[in-house]
Design goal:
Layout lengths: L1 E9 L2 E3 L5 H11 L3 E11 L4 E12 L4 H10 L19 E5 L2 H5 L3 H15 L13
Length: 137
């Protein structure tokens, strides 16, 4: 089993999912033109073994013009996203650059997960020389 959750961290505060359009707009105005961090915590577990890790990505926003912000808020995609944005869709227009894992900002650090799965499965099934064979019976 794999479980994961992602947060946006800005100026000492965790920015969760907004409850209203106005709250989403306020969050995005705070992030506009600034850098913040996205953290994901991941746990891989079986009955007898578990592995946990976290991944951090720095995200740099451009200044968000008011008209672009309004258009984005009209999409309503900010309402179910930590930090009021999803990098994989319309909010990509806000991103100047990132330092770290893109998939982490999407919500699951796939690159790090694959490495951790390899280590986990090799410990779980040390007799298998090829870790990918753990996926096949």
């Amino acid at each position: 089993m794999v479980g994961s959750d992602t947060i946006v961290y800005f100026e000492g505060e965790v920015l969760g999912k907004p409850n209203t359009r106005d709250e989403a707009g306020a969050i995005l105005k705070r992030l506009s033109g600034k850098q913040h961090e996205v953290y994901s915590g991941v746990c891989i577990c079986t009955e007898g073994m578990s592995k946990t890790f976290s991944v951090k990505t720095k995200v740099y926003f451009r200044e968000i013009p008011d008209d672009l912000l309004e258009l984005y808020l009209d999409t309503e995609e900010s309402m179910d996203k930590a930090g009021a944005y999803g990098i994989q869709a319309h909010a990509l227009a806000f991103i100047e650059r990132i330092e770290g894992s893109y998939s982490n900002v999407v919500g699951l650090p796939v690159d790090s997960l694959l490495i951790a799965l390899q280590e986990f499965l090799q410990k779980l099934e040390p007799s298998k020389s090829e870790w990918r064979s753990c996926f096949v019976s």
